[in-house]
Design a protein that fits this description.
Elements (H helix, E strand, L loop, with lengths): L3 H13 L3 H4 L2 H65 L7 E5 L1 H4 L4 H4 L5 E5 L5 H6 L1 H5 L6 E5 L13 H18 L5 E4 L11 H17 L3 E4 L26 H24 L1
Parallel strand pairs: 1-2, 1-3, 3-4, 4-5
């Protein structure tokens, strides 16, 4: 390594005919060289560590989003997810299938294959899941499948209870699910289905509408994520739930309700996939 100060001293000594050792003692040269060497490796080490630190920060952020929910979710739903994993291991998905994920309205949709025809379905709904549950299990529910599109419906985050989440809390979880899907299948659209108005939870409908507005906003701001509007179809002209479309619990759809729900989702799928083909 050469140092400018040394070259200038040598040049000056040659010009005046003076030995450079007389101008700068050897100890000064050595100290100057050590100072430069001490500075350069430090900067290089910091540059090498920076990307690792950024990756660690990103992982920590993701972990923080799921951490408050992981223990309770695992305790409640682990057996259900293991059953799906066992099913994945012994069955083959249909080519270009539509992956259906979410809560009990997805799990109870026995006529999905018929209602969404000609699309073929991969049903993976479970119980009374919230988006926190779906986010915790997103990797295990999504990544085993090579789907053409995802349809997600989760209706339990706001139900009029003290344990309800806020739209802001749920938004982080929705975006996490979308990110997992996009990383696994970058070109596959994700369809988020609006939460349906029901008589059993109609007292919470104003807050549920805020949640639906958040889902719509996610669809506006995330690439290849699409909103499926269903609420108006399940309301009367007086803005009351159409009770005739639900089973006795006035929470889950009956056969007629699923036919209507399925047509809305199927039509939106056709629209989204057609636009994607044209692009």
């Amino acid at each position: 390594m050469r140092f400018p100060i040394l070259r200038s001293q040598i040049a000056a000594s040659h010009q005046h005919g003076v030995c450079h050792s007389a101008l700068m003692p050897l100890s000064v040269w050595l100290l100057s060289g050590m100072a430069c060497l001490a500075i350069l490796p430090t900067a290089t080490a910091q540059d090498a560590i920076a990307p690792e630190s950024a990756a660690a920060d990103e992982t920590a952020t993701e972990t923080d989003v799921l951490a408050p929910y992981r223990e309770a979710t695992t305790k409640r739903w682990e057996k259900d997810i293991q059953k799906y994993e066992a099913l994945d291991a012994k069955t083959a998905d249909p080519a270009d299938g539509i992956l259906l994920i979410g809560s009990s309205s997805i799990r109870r949709w026995d006529s999905a294959a018929e209602d969404l025809a000609p699309f073929r379905v991969i049903p993976r709904g479970y119980g009374g899941a919230r988006y926190s549950d779906l986010a915790v299990y997103a990797e295990r529910l999504i990544t085993p499948h090579n789907f053409r599109a995802i349809v997600a419906f989760v209706g339990n985050d706001i139900s009029g209870k003290e344990t309800d989440g806020t739209p802001e809390e749920v938004e982080q979880l929705v975006r996490h699910v979308v990110a997992v899907a996009r990383e696994h299948r970058p070109g596959a659209p994700v369809l988020l289905v609006e939460v349906t108005p029901t008589r059993s939870r109609y007292d919470a409908w104003p807050k549920i509408r805020e949640l639906n507005a958040m889902l719509r906003e996610v669809c506006f701001t995330e690439p290849n994520v699409h909103f499926v509007a269903t609420a108006e179809t399940f309301l009367t002209h007086d803005n009351e739930p159409r009770e005739i479309l639900f089973v006795d619990d006035q929470l889950h759809l009956n056969e007629e309700g699923y036919v209507i729900w399925g047509k809305i989702i199927r039509d939106r799928l056709i629209e989204v996939l057609r636009e994607q083909t044209q692009d």
